[in-house]
Sequence to fold (171 residues):
Amino acid sequence: MGDAYTDLARKTLESYVTTGHMPDVDRTALPNEMTKDRAGAFVSLKKHGQLRGCIGTIGPVQPCLADEIMNNAVSAGTGDPRFRPVRQDELADLVYSVDVLGEPEQIYSLDDLDVHRYGVIVSNGRRRGLLLPDLEGVDTPEEQVGIAMQKGGIAPEEPIMLERFEVVRHK
Fold:
């Protein structure tokens, strides 16, 4: 088992996949910051060490962090366009992580990025791409920004605005 964050993500996705409904959650048993605070959050699913789904929000869109995690857990398991929806027989093989995003801050140089400490948001107008920090195989700021640009549909020659953020990762 993980901590309260990953346990909530697991319980939510397992309930949704098996019953088609969100679980009833005893919010009094959750840490105070999950019911009082708002933040963007990403839920990542891995199966046998391979990514199986990852969906999140850059900023808060739900009334509290617990709701953010619950909605993103269902989306990661059933709505990530890169993968087919999670089946009931896969649930036992999933490993969950939840990244709670800090406030983004604008930066002006790749020198202000550390791929292990900061995630990056790359923007061009309304198009945005985000990449979480400390991902396997992403070793340089150039790689991190390039992947985020691809995710945002931003061509290499287009001008960009950069923001960085820190996360608290729960496993």
